Amino acid sequence: MLRRIFMFSNPIRNKLIRAVGGNSSAFEKNSVTKEEKLTEVLKQALPGITYVSIQDISGGCGAMFEISIEAKEFRGLTRVKQHRLVTDSLKTEIAEMHGIRIHTNPTTEDV
């Protein structure tokens, strides 16, 4: 249920960010954010992802992230093994971070 609330609030949050942020430079529009990069790495490593949310919780400096992820690969695994899959996938990216929070759930639906 909490996942659905986040999914519904994202468009509203994005509009607010754009409204407050104003006009940005061409470089900012074309550059890939750290969140987008982390999402792409996870999607390549875990193709069974059905939901992923990555938030910079360090105040914008990119030192700490919170990752919520749901994937088919987590079925039958303990929470520790699920987190290990995520950290192994992001090994090089985590080396540049101060900290990371990981929330995992196995996919409950057959997709």
Automatic annotation (TrEMBL):
InterPro entries: BolA (IPR002634), BolA-like_sf (IPR036065), Mt_Fe-S_assembly_factor (IPR052275). GO terms for cellular component: mitochondrial matrix. Gene3D superfamilies: BolA-like. It holds the Pfam family BolA. It comes from the Eukaryota. SUPFAM superfamilies: BolA-like (SSF82657). Belongs to the BolA/IbaG family. This is BolA-like protein 3.
